[in-house]
Design brief:
Elements: E1 4-8, E2 19-22, E3 27-29, E4 35-36, H1 41-50, H2 70-78, H3 83-88, E5 92-94, E6 99-105, E7 111-118, E8 126-130, E9 146-150, H4 153-160, E10 165-167, H5 175-182, E11 187-193, H6 197-207, E12 213-219, H7 228-236
Parallel strand pairs: 9-10, 9-11, 11-12
Antiparallel strand pairs: 1-2, 2-3, 3-4, 5-6, 6-7, 7-8
């Protein structure tokens, strides 16, 4: 069984990163559906070694597909996320793991991590492969001077309709990450759940030294639980 390696540009349709490459050598473009038969492991090993930005341990499940079963569609619809938006962000479905796979790529299109939302384990809903905290995964660019930070990917997708946003894939915002963001943005908004009020205060104290302005939005729920209008009002502070 083959494992996904990375996204590359497609020579057939010209897309920047719609073509997937697997470790047995086969390639498939999710845009134009062009398919290339596998040529063996050696070629892919050379590809990995050539691109030292790719972590060989970070691979997507071998059986990912772009068609979501009803249980996954219901979950996305619950938060107002369309399947078109999910596809835009390269979400996929793994039947073996009964999981929505949410990949995290760097600016060059290299797979750096992924988060899964599983539907067959009531005790563990989310799990992460890789170190997403090392990637500043920026969505939307409505205001190049202001960045909104949220906890999860679905919340980031909803906020990206309105503002520039970055998901934490958790709630921890390190000083190193704040410094990286501070070098690119002047204004910071951090949206956290109410049960993290104490952590919000600590984050504010760290961030205010690195940005012209810092605002902490503490709400009962994540942005994904609110409508676009409610999110817009919360970000404006009115």
């Amino acid at each position: 069984m083959s494992e996904f390696v990375r996204h590359v540009a497609c020579p057939e349709c010209g897309s920047k990163d719609n073509r997937g490459v697997w470790d047995d050598g086969h390639e498939y473009c999710f845009g134009c559906h062009d398919y290339t038969r596998g040529t063996g492991f050696k070629k892919i090993g050379q590809l990995k070694n050539k691109n030292n930005n790719v972590d060989d341990d970070i691979v997507l499940p071998y059986d990912i597909v772009l068609n979501f079963p009803q249980v996954a569609k219901n979950w996305l619809n619950k938060y107002g996320i369309t399947t078109a938006e999910a596809s835009l962000h390269k979400f996929a479905w793994s039947e073996t793991h009964k999981t929505i796979v949410m990949p995290i790529y760097d600016v060059e299109g290299n797979l750096k991590a992924w988060q899964g939302r599983t539907f067959d384990n009531p005790k563990i809903k989310y799990y992460t492969k890789g170190k997403p905290e090392e990637i500043d995964y920026i969505l939307g660019m409505s205001d190049p001077s202001k960045i909104v930070v949220v906890e999860d990917m679905l919340s980031a997708i909803k906020v990206s309709r309105i503002a520039t946003v970055m998901p934490l894939f958790g709630s921890h915002l390190s000083s190193e990450r704040l410094a990286r963001l501070g070098s690119s943005f002047s204004h910071l908004i951090v949206w956290l759940d109410r049960d993290k009020s104490r952590y919000a205060a600590e984050t504010y104290q760290k961030a205010r030294l690195m940005f012209e302005s810092v605002r902490i939005v503490v709400k009962e729920k994540d942005p994904k639980e609110y409508t676009d209008d409610q999110i817009r009002i919360s970000l404006k502070g009115t």
